[in-house]
């Protein structure tokens, strides 16, 4: 870390504390050359590795934009999208790896999106898993209708009509 005043590279850390729930570290440093003090904030960056090999920082906004497209015309509000992006970030961070392949971010989106809106989920999954035929949709819909183990055996979320 170079001193911002004299560009000297020997700077001592005199205080260090976690900020933003431990996602960043704030350090107070002192320059060994000119004696001036400055503060740095180092954020642990979560990198997403794209299929091309390019990495970019994880962005909740990107998750929201990606899901927004699938939610067009669906009753899904901005709050719900933000919450979904937050859950995705938590899941991705919980993996314990600093570099996440982009398809794992997609995987982390599928679960919460399925709970949020089944139509949006199908749209997103069709692109993400590159559905190529109507059978792919049928299979996915059959999976959606299959009761989750341990839950009631009725079809989920479909109250009987009169
Ligand atoms: Zn200095």
TrEMBL record:
The record's free-text note on cofactor binding: Binds 1 zinc ion.
Known PROSITE patterns for this protein?
ATP_CONE
**Zn finger region (unnamed):** 3-34
Q: Which residues form the ATP-cone domain?
A: 46-136
Q: What is its biological role?
A: Negatively regulates transcription of bacterial ribonucleotide reductase nrd genes and operons by binding to NrdR-boxes.
Q: Which PANTHER family does the UniProt record give?
A: TRANSCRIPTIONAL REPRESSOR NRDR
According to UniProt, the name of this protein is Transcriptional repressor NrdR
Q: Which organism is it from?
A: Pseudonocardia asaccharolytica DSM 44247 = NBRC 16224
Give the classification, highest ranks.
Bacteria, Bacillati, Actinomycetota, Actinomycetes, Pseudonocardiales
Q: Identify the gene encoding this protein.
A: nrdR
